[in-house]
Amino acid sequence: MNFIASLAVQAIKELYQVEIEESAVNIQETRKEFDGQVTVVTFPFTRYSKKSPEQTGSEIGDYLVAHASEISSYNVIKGFLNLSLTDEFWLQALHEELLKPDFEDIPKNGKRVMIEYSSPNTNKPLHLGHVRNNLLGFSVAAILEAAGYEIIKANLVNDRGIHICKSMLAWEKFGNGETPESTGLKGDKLVGNYYVRFDKEYKKEVEALIASGKSEEEAKKEAPLMLEAQEMLRKWEAGDHQVIHLWKQMNAWVYKGFEETYEKMGIAFDKVYYESDTYLLGKDIIEEGLSKGVFFKKQDNSVWIDLTADGLDEKLVLRGDGTSVYITQDLGTAQLKYDDYHMDNSIYVVGNEQDYHFKVLFLILKKLGKSWAEGLYHLSYGMVDLPSGKMKSREGTVVDADDLMAEMVETAKQRTEELGKVDDFSEQEKEVLYEMIGLGALKYFLLKVEPKKRLLFDPNESIDFQGHTGPFVQYTHARIKSVLSKGAYHEEPFDVQPAGLEASERELIKELVKFKSVIVSAANDYSPAIIANYVYEIAKLYNKFYHEVAILKAEDVRLKEFRLNLSAATAKVISKGMGLLGIQVPERM
RNA sequence: GCCUCGGUAGCUCAGUUGGAUAGAGCAACGGUUUUCUAAACCGUGGGUCAGGGGUUCGAAUCCCUUCCGGGGUACCA
User: In angstroms, rounded to a whole number, what is the distance separating the alpha carbons of residues A120 and A115?
Assistant: First the structure.
């Protein structure tokens, strides 16, 4: 569509003797209710023409039609110049953009980007909040890869700390030697139960202490369980054999559980970092900052940075006793990641509750003069809330990831059986299909919403399978595949030039040829939602086309061939687009 | 208090660097199948784009301000 902008620039120059930038030409899609496909907004040009918007539009319109064979006609409504492009133009675009085997390839741009996501704690199973994080990370990685980046998918596992000790301690005290094998529980679930158990017992102790006259603050600090957990953390840091053994064993249970969940979810990583390996990093960066005068020391030896000039606060970066805080570790880990991969960009997929933390982290790295700090980006997303409010693992008010996925698959099964279209499938084929649809519905539901928006999930209201949903798009794909197979379609060079395009065909082509630019803008915005909405639009337009024109029973063979090709191109875009969301599409459903 | 992100139809969401009469889905109502998959299609109703001001040919979009909601503002992570 670029030729229209440059031609418009030419027109302004010749008609009104004014030189303008191409970017000053506002081009948009023509709204449905008007004739044409592309619209140039001509209001801004009236200052050059010194004429009415209508007259200006006509003059430019005449010029464009005279100078571009692709433009067949125009109409002017107020300051809008609506252009109709020839059918040949659209067919050509379809041909060039979509009917090649490597149609979706965007050349590599030579840039490397790391995307860190998931980053679970090993004291509890994954819940719906993690699901959003995982799907976002995986999808953004796929989108960036499609846009030409080299991708490293990283996971930073939070495998140590006081919260891990809490579940360890509770298991030691109340577990009676339970194991995943002895209980039949998934490892992460088993460990999660003890995390909840700790909280329960701890609260009892606190209440007892309060009853005996302590203040709430004192009680929370002095409860024996808390003291024991802290002692356990000290032993862990000292390398105590028994504690380390227990830690390794319980983490191993959790990892096995996570693996199952990740596999079901269909996500994976190229590199896993463990906080137990990285938590001591960052101290040399503190030294560096002190010597550069970026940080300063207080009387108690604690180290700070003053960010008040940047509108933030003073921030502690190292405790007075020399131990790390969260940001110390993150400073060190950021350096480690860069040393490992020398990437151009590094993306952190982390909830918006940590917006401030990342703002500070990136700012500190810039102040330290790290050349790579410019490439850091916090992909912040909104929390997933229940109607009752926030999910809290400790209180057990969470939507469990495994349960949710299983429910979705079950619903998909019921739906599919009711419709009875795949009764001839083998049991195994059915299982595969149910998973594809159930997970497709879930993933689409979570990804179609702009990441930064908060998401409300009502467990009592099931996720839809109709309308603006994953299954709708999947269904459209299956429908196309069915037509293609009945039409004995096989990919081959096509040169069919139908006498004239139907409106529904033109609309579909117009949307299809946007595919690559949509990938690019989704990559620039780190937004799977853009892909999700685009793919939905494609599916809708295809269904309209499908209902309005006959494909297999087209008037003549050439027309049928063309429509089969158009269908095949649509299927490719749907399949590839859904793939960018981590959603598979079936041949039949 | 300060910082930050949200607020668009009953509900869930789209809405490009400011552009035409603000769009989808769900829910409601009505229609479409002897014809390529009805998980579909077509139609009807439904709006103070949170409120107010400003910038301009033009504002859901940019600026200011008020209100409502989330999050942050820890020697927690």
Answer: 15
DSSP summary character for residue A127: B
| CA–CA gap between residue A30 and residue A39 (Å, rounded) | 5
Whether the predicted pLDDT of A454 surpasses 70: yes
Q: Residue A528 and residue A519: Cα distance in Å, rounded?
A: 9
Token pair belonging to A589 = 């459903």
Separation between Cα atoms, residue A422 and residue A420, nearest integer Å: 6
Task: Return the SS3 of A185.
Answer: coil
Provide DSSP, A428-465: HHHHHHHHHHHHHHHHHHHHSS-TTS-EE--TTSPPPS
Residue A13 has pLDDT above 70, yes or no: yes
- Tell me which amino acid residue A309 is: A
Dihedrals φ, ψ of A351, to 5°?
-60, 160
Shortest CA to C1' contact from A553: nucleotide: B36
Please give the span between the terminal C-alpha atoms of chain A, in angstroms, as a whole number. 37
| pLDDT of residue A412 exceeding 90 | yes
Query: In this structure, are residues A74 and A81 in contact, taking their beta carbons and an 8 Å threshold?
Result: yes
- Strand B lies under 7 A from the Cβ of residue A316: yes
ipTM of the complex: 0.95
Domains along the sequence of chain A with CATH: 2-85 (3.30.1360.70), 161-267 (no CATH), 401-579 (1.10.730.10)
Name the token pair of A514.
Answer: 């946007």
Gap from A550 CA to B35 C1', Å: 9
Q: Are strands A271-274 and A71-77 parallel, antiparallel or unpaired?
A: unpaired
Q: Which of residues 222-281 of A touch strand B (CB under 7 A)?
A: 275
Interatomic distance A260 CA / B33 C1' (Å)? 43
